[in-house]
Design goal:
The complex is a heterodimer of chains A (338) and B (321). With 338 residues, chain A is mainly α. Helices cover 77% and strands 0% of the residues of chain A. The longest helix of chain A has 35 residues. The relative contact order of chain A is 0.17. In chain B, α4 crosses α11, α5 packs antiparallel against α6 and α9 crosses α13. Classes of the chains: A mainly alpha (338), B mainly alpha (321).
């Protein structure tokens, strides 16, 4: 009892610390760049006060990018966390099972048709759902065995990646560049349109996940007990799965499939705060947001080369960390079959 | 008997590869051209373009097939292959880096960078999987996946940093047999030969390895040494293949699975069987890529990825019930 209590306090402390970090990072991101301004001015400019030039820079260029990073980071992390708990497998992230790959496929197809880029979140959603449908078609049986799902997901990912690759080879250089940027994960050129469309959808989905999250704990008791408590386990699982797919696709529609956020953040949170509770889900969202915004800061201000995709940074940071995790535990994160 | 049948199919695939393409050429003309008595533009196409392409396809396919069989034996993982272990991604990054930094333009110049990158990635994957002298198969596969993700994102970053690199590298990264002269093959032939010999040498021990490390040890098989030699064979074969043709997915994965139902699980048959099945798959995919969008063509690496994905899905269904 005492241990649970300590852990909860620690989780709340961590949440507070991360929230503070989030505010600081946001301030930093809004105030630094070609036009430098003090923190307070940046915050004032955000609400439309102060120097007109500052307001333009902050509101039109920096804010959409910052908000995209925050929302997509949180969305990816929450989607990863839900999937990993649902399948009780640390590998079952949306990157691994092909959903974010599907989302970038959708986005690249849209680029190929030359339609308005504002439709990208929608196209990504379509692609992600397509990937999930392929996954379901191949992997579905009355119960979802995890290893089959992960492996079939890798296959779906590979097929969609081939389609994207084909387009990148065929595209004119201009289009190939932006397609490549999408598939690596990038925050360049985000506008309010995308933030409004994608952001609202992501926020609503995250809220739905928080509402349904109690069902996961019930599912953890096993199908029989869950049924005894009046929960149809398969329906609950399908509902949560769909939410996670939608969330991951929308997030990828906003920023591209930024690597390792969905996979690594839930691990990090489990390491910091122990077994999942509703509070750790909030911690997960915060961590994802801080991580992606921090990585974007690295891309914008700390690297010598300009125009790098943020996904390259998260991959560089995420991979060694995941490997350390693998080595420190005996064996890899245990593969548990459901 | 089955091996003879396999070779028959292989000859058929080679013939198709010589005869079919953006312009179909009658087999008689092909034969004339091969014997040196044919002349004219058709004969030139056959000797100048399609013969090198077919020969390269045969050699690369054999290398990839054998690499897949040995990789699956060494890791005891039916989903292991040069692609899944990060070897292709390592070669990709090395070549793109070379194009970015050294302004290379010819596949002939890429060769050694590809070999180097593939070998480095394999060593990394091995080092990650190594734990107190033993090799954990599951960790090897996961490490390969992680490694691939990182290397590909670095590759993309480099291509985004320089338009010239993007233009130069994206065709190579698709994986293709076209436009390569036989000169590209020459420098890696010794590597492939050593790789094939090693693969055949370790194949009896792979049968023991399949029983588990302890059982193999008690049978007197030097597990660590077999893994090292097998790994070396995989690196030599996969690196040579990627150096010549670019990253071609799934041939290494698919060949053993095609051969196993026919010849069984005995690696002494499996490895030679894959030397035949690999080129069959690769040539068939290449011919298909030439036919579907005639008169242009789809790079064979993209064709194999399209065909390989459903195969992997079906395999996964079977492997993980």
């Amino acid at each position: 009892m005492n241990a649970v209590h300590t852990r909860r306090r620690r989780t709340l402390l961590l949440c507070a610390a991360l929230a503070a970090g989030l505010v600081l990072l946001t301030g930093l991101a809004l105030s630094t760049g070609q036009v430098e301004m003090p923190f307070t001015d940046a915050l004032r400019a955000l609400v439309g006060l102060g120097d007109a030039g500052d307001v333009l820079v902050v509101q039109e260029f920096r804010a959409p990018r910052v908000i995209s990073a925050l929302i997509a980071g949180a969305g990816l992390a929450v989607a990863g966390s839900v999937l990993q708990r649902l399948f009780r497998n640390p590998l079952a992230s949306p990157d691994v099972i092909g959903v974010t790959g599907g989302a970038s496929f959708g986005a690249v197809v849209l680029l190929a048709t030359g339609a308005s880029q504002a439709l990208i979140p929608l196209a990504a959603l379509g692609g992600g759902v397509l990937a999930a449908a392929l996954l379901g078609g191949f992997a579905w049986r009355s119960r979802m065995a995890v290893s089959r799902l992960v492996l079939v997901g890798l296959a779906v990912q590979a097929g969609l990646a081939a389609a994207v690759n084909l387009m990148i080879v065929r595209f004119p250089a201009e289009l190939a560049t932006s397609a490549l940027q999408w598939t690596t994960g990038s925050l360049y050129g985000r506008t309010w349109t995308e933030v409004r469309v994608g952001g609202t959808a992501i926020a609503l989905t995250v809220a739905a996940v928080f509402l349904l999250h109690r069902q996961v704990s019930v599912l953890d008791l096993g199908d029989d007990s869950a049924g005894g408590l009046g929960l149809d386990p398969n329906r609950a699982r399908l509902g949560l799965l769909l939410l996670a797919v939608v969330l991951a696709s929308l997030a990828a529609g906003l920023t591209g499939p930024v690597a390792f956020v969905a996979l690594a953040v839930p691990h990090l949170v489990r390491f910091l705060a122990g077994p999942p509770t509703p509070a750790t889900l909030a911690l997960t969202a915060l961590t994802g947001a801080v991580l992606l915004l921090g990585a974007d800061h690295v891309v914008l201000h700390l690297l010598p080369v300009h125009g790098l995709p943020v996904g390259a940074v998260t991959a560089t940071l995420g991979a060694p960390w995941l490997l350390v995790l693998m080595i420190r535990r005996s064996g890899l994160p245990q593969r548990r079959e459901s | 008997m089955l091996l003879a049948l396999g070779i028959g199919v292989l000859v058929l695939c080679s013939a198709l590869s010589l005869a079919l393409g953006s312009r179909p050429i009658p087999l008689a003309t092909v034969l004339d051209a091969l014997s040196g008595s044919g002349h004219g533009s058709d004969a030139d196409v056959v000797t100048g373009l399609r013969v090198p392409r077919t020969v390269i396809g045969l050699v690369i396919g054999a290398a990839l097939g054998a690499a897949g069989a040995v990789a699956q034996g060494v890791t005891r993982n039916p989903l292991a292959s040069p692609t899944t272990l990060g070897i292709n991604a390592g070669a990709g990054l090395a070549v793109v880096t070379a194009i970015f930094a050294l302004h290379l333009t010819q596949p002939l110049q890429y060769v050694w960078f590809a070999v180097l990158g593939a070998a480095a990635a394999a060593v990394l994957a091995y080092a990650m999987a190594r734990r107190s002298g033993d090799l954990d198969p599951v960790r090897l596969a996961l490490g390969g996946t992680v490694l691939t993700a990182v290397l590909t994102s670095w590759t993309s970053a480099l291509m985004l940093a320089s338009r010239r690199t993007l233009d130069e590298a994206r065709f190579w990264l698709a994986g293709s047999l076209s436009g390569r002269s036989l000169e590209v093959l020459t420098p890696v032939l010794p590597l492939i030969a050593v790789g094939v010999v090693l693969a055949l040498l370790v194949s009896p021990a792979l049968n023991a390895l399949a029983l588990g490390d302890e059982a193999a040890q008690s049978l007197g098989v030097p597990v660590v040494r077999i893994r090292l030699l097998g790994g070396l064979a995989v690196v030599l074969l996969a690196a040579s293949a990627v150096a010549v043709a670019g990253p071609i997915a799934f041939i290494g994965l698919a060949a053993p699975h095609l051969v196993r139902p026919l010849l069984g699980n005995d690696h002494r048959w499996l490895v030679p069987g894959c030397l035949v099945a690999g080129p069959i798959l690769l040539l068939a995919a290449d011919v298909l890529g030439r036919l579907v969008t005639r008169p242009s063509e789809i790079e064979v690496g993209i064709v194999t990825a399209f065909l390989g994905a459903p195969l992997l899905a079906v395999l996964a269904r079977k492997v993980a019930r």
